[in-house]
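Single-chain item
Fold in token form
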Amino acid sequence: MNHSNEKKYNKVIVILSVAIPLAVAALFGVKIDLKLPFFFPPIYATINAITALVLIMAYTAIVNKKIKLHRRLMQTAIALSLIFLVMYVLYHMTSDSTKFGGEGIIKSTYYIILITHIILSVIVIPFVLITYVRAITNNIERHKKIARITFPIWLYVAISGVLVYIMISPYY
């Protein structure tokens, strides 16, 4: 199969895969004295939960050969992830970080989930972008191969984000 259509997206994928995490990290250092109209953590945790459900629905749709539904659900998952990212950055630019107050095994569990969530949330960016490009350029066999890797990582990131929120929420 000719991959030239896919190749024209490679620079954009590399740029976004590097720029998004760097921008998020840089913006964490920016503090804006602004009172947001909403307390964002429960909102973006809900968006993560909905993303997880949408990903599962998209997987079910493709297993059942409902390609148009799968496509719409995946576009929805990408949109939800972008909305999450904007809210997450806004919250952290306007609020101090919350310290986890748990002790013992729960503290270790929290940090394991948090650290794996953060690392995989960076790693999943190029996977999502490559998977999406392979779909829109109709490189379906290559799309399927990488989707088998992308799906569980993205699902873990969405679910672990909810778990991190639930575990830290008593300390807000």
Observations:
- Helices lie at 4-7, 10-28, 40-63, 67-94, 104-136, 140-168.
